[in-house]
Predict the 3D structure of the following.
Amino acid sequence: MTDPFIAPDNLPRCRWCGGAPEFLPYHDHEWGFPVADDRRLFEKLCLESFQSGLSWRTILNKRDNFRAAFAQFDFHQVAQFGAAEIERLLQDEGIVRHRGKIEAVINNAQRLLELIDREGSFARFVWRYEPAADSLGAPQTQSTSAESVALSKELKKRGWKFVGPTTVYAFLQSMGLINDHTHECVIRDRVSTARQQFVRP
């Protein structure tokens, strides 16, 4: 078992959140807490796709820049982006300038509008893939699940890009469909309570 990170308040946290100062507030207030807001869900899936091949620290430090560059991830606006916006984004040093990933965000915004038209909301669709707690291994011991594979496959079938099973699993972890905080982590119980009180879409 990996020793927990002891935070400045002398309470244990998941080991990974001791890796950089900016990780602790993200870990304590965002990671694993359930989300039902379509914009926030879209933003996180986009950021996870940008992280592919990079560190989360890089993405987290650029998150405000990504929000500014992509209209606060208002998918209605992003879906309208064209060649001029793509070129602007490719010149934006504040984000990850990867043409394929930039074009994927725009494509996925368009696919999201189609999905909402069919399903009612992104949240309603995504939360169908919440894993049963007893179907998962010990916290932070896997990078995919049957649900992340199934959701990835369904999104790809609907034309989404850069949504592989590992990317989708990280999305499920961070958006609270899984409580993957370690058992020693003081935040695990807070997330458990939030998930119990959460009204599934």
Notes: The radius of gyration is 17 Å.
